[in-house]
Input
Amino acid sequence: MMPAPQSAHHLLAALDEERAFDHAHAQEHDHAVPRVPLFAAISLALVALALVALVRLAGFDPVDAPSAEQVARDLRFEDRPGGAVAVFDHPSQNLVAIVPGGSDSFVRSTMRSLARDRRREGVGAEAPFHLAWHADGRLTLSDPITGRRLDLIAFGQDNARAFARWLPAPTNSMKD
Output
């Protein structure tokens, strides 16, 4: 059996009752954000953004530059068969070391990354890289061609040691 159809008046009354309930419920949960704190937060964000833009446009580089070099050496890296990498002193061109394929993955992957940057710039592998200990204890590897500089200590002591072995120990050497 089908229920008897309800009158239009009864349906309209039920709809009005539902709307009134929804309106009252919405007012209970109305969480309008106060205007003054909202404008203060937006103003603070805009001032901070303007200051950063001004400082950057003025030429300030926020990257913390390392201190003076204590010990430095220019090195050239050359790929060899079997994944090995030959390390040469520059300008003497004396062989410093051969990093065998399958070992010292940090050295090989770092140098391949730097070489990829050079290829993008259209530059070959003939120019040396600059490895340096700094007075503040940093060990950096720089590419004078692309301007890229890596703070090797940031990759961990063991990875930094992989490059540090090609420098004489500075007066402030890396602690074991």
